[in-house]
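Morning. Coffee machine broken again, so started the prediction first thing and wrote up yesterday's gels while waiting. Chain of 96 residues, entered below exactly as on the submission form.
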Amino acid sequence: MPEGRVDEADETSWQDYANCLGVDPDLFFPERGASTREAKEVCRGCVVRDDCLEFALANGEKFGIWGGMSERERRRIRRQRALARATPVAVASTGT
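Came back before lunch.
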C-alpha cells in the first residue's frame, strides 16, 4: 500500500465498537417524517460517534442517522465547514 494511504479496513474499523452493532438497520433509516429519537438514543454515548459522523460527512451519506445526526443536521455541518474554509480566502483577498 502506498505511504500515506489509509487502508479501507482501517477506515471502517471503528464500526466494530459502535453501539448500533447488531441493531436493526431500519431503525437508522426511518420513513420520511418518522421520529429519529430511538436511533439518536442508540448513538448517545457511543464511543465512535464522531468517527461515524465523519465517515458520513466524508462519504456524502444522504440518508439515515449517522453519528447521532440526521441528513439535515449533517448538511448544516457541511455548510458551516465550507464557509469556514472559504472565509480565510475571502479575508486574504481583501487584504484585511
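The two ends are 44 Å apart (CA to CA). Going to sketch it on the whiteboard this afternoon.
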